[in-house]
Amino acid sequence: MTVLLSDLRICYQFREQSERVVMSLSVPRIDATALLAGDPATQNWVAEAATGVGFMTIYNTPVSTAQAQAVLAAYHAFFALPVAEKAACDMAQTGSNRGWGAPGSERVDPDANSDYKQVYDCGVALAPDNPLAALPCYAPNIWPVQPADFRVVLQDYYRDATALALDLLCAVVNAAGLDGEYFRSQFDQPMALLRGNYYPTRPAWAGEKDFGIATHTDYGCLTLLATDGSPGLEVRTRGGGWIPVSAPPGEFVINFGEMLEMWTSGQIKATPHRVVGTAHERISVPLFFNPNHDANIAPFGSDRVIEARTHVETRYAETYLHLNAS
Ligand SMILES: O=C(O)CCC(=O)C(=O)O
Ligand SMILES: [Fe+2]
């Protein structure tokens, strides 16, 4: 058989393309310490993930497995409380998003029903005389009486997780060939939001428009997600399929949000994802790492101005039912 040079070239191009497709479908597992140390091979994988599938998982981080387990246990104990006790810190009584969000309190996809998950949200604790404390995006936290150690466990984790998220964000931005240090300067008072998601077993009544959390993209820059290790999270591929992603306690799922996609002119991808729900309950803990309220998230280098606070407040008003203006 004679093989023409042009056939070989087509073959090679096909192989190259299908390898690229396979790469963009898979979610890489990254050594965080190597990334933070600037290891070139790790940076290449991270750049590929950030600009391709938009998701990765990380291991070998400065946050210990024991700390992640303590955080998961604290949320587990909180969500197990009687409804009346959780209702004492219901965010629906407030004009912001701090405290408990009951099942059905958020609708992230206008084409789906409101999510059946419960949440508990907290943010940075500013001194009451800080003028920023008057903004809803820096609203005071509302702590439940029980579990007794809930507040201290979550506040310690908030401190450690925001420090890790900042280092990771800079490293990812650097890996993608952008100026990580500029991004660092936009996070000295981040509107970071720490959430506990509780998914009960998928309810018997759930139909095709009912989800633990329906298809959405995150609003911020980087999401650092701890989970109890059970499956449930699915990530949409460019072809419209869904791939499962999971990480045991001590490892994390990382993805990128709308603000970073906008800021980087689409280079870093905010990928849609969802949790349909399974026959097992599940807890996940995202830290939504949002920048300073006045950071300009318009495409880097453009002369437009889009304040980060405007973007998060618009998205919160669209999705939390109690903040929904319409
Ligand atoms: O529970 C998960 O794995 C994902 C949660 C999520 O996407 C979110 O809270 O934005
Ligand atoms: Fe999400």
From TrEMBL:
<dbReference type="Pfam" id="PF03171">
    <property type="entry name" value="2OG-FeII_Oxy"/>
</dbReference>
<dbReference type="InterPro" id="IPR026992">
    <property type="entry name" value="DIOX_N"/>
</dbReference>
<comment type="pathway">
    <text>Alkene biosynthesis; ethylene biosynthesis via 2-oxoglutarate.</text>
</comment>
<dbReference type="GO" id="GO:0009693">
    <property type="term" value="P:ethylene biosynthetic process"/>
</dbReference>
<dbReference type="InterPro" id="IPR005123">
    <property type="entry name" value="Oxoglu/Fe-dep_dioxygenase_dom"/>
</dbReference>
<feature type="domain" description="Fe2OG dioxygenase">
    <location>
        <begin position="186"/>
        <end position="291"/>
    </location>
</feature>
<keyword id="KW-0266">Ethylene biosynthesis</keyword>
<comment type="similarity">
    <text>Belongs to the iron/ascorbate-dependent oxidoreductase family.</text>
</comment>
<keyword id="KW-0479">Metal-binding</keyword>
<keyword id="KW-0408">Iron</keyword>
<dbReference type="InterPro" id="IPR044861">
    <property type="entry name" value="IPNS-like_FE2OG_OXY"/>
</dbReference>
<dbReference type="GO" id="GO:0102276">
    <property type="term" value="F:2-oxoglutarate oxygenase/decarboxylase (ethylene-forming) activity"/>
</dbReference>
<dbReference type="InterPro" id="IPR050231">
    <property type="entry name" value="Iron_ascorbate_oxido_reductase"/>
</dbReference>
<protein>
    <recommendedName>
        <fullName>2-oxoglutarate-dependent ethylene/succinate-forming enzyme</fullName>
        <ecNumber>1.13.12.19</ecNumber>
        <ecNumber>1.14.20.7</ecNumber>
    </recommendedName>
</protein>
<dbReference type="Pfam" id="PF14226">
    <property type="entry name" value="DIOX_N"/>
</dbReference>
<keyword id="KW-0560">Oxidoreductase</keyword>
<dbReference type="InterPro" id="IPR027443">
    <property type="entry name" value="IPNS-like_sf"/>
</dbReference>
<dbReference type="GO" id="GO:0046872">
    <property type="term" value="F:metal ion binding"/>
</dbReference>
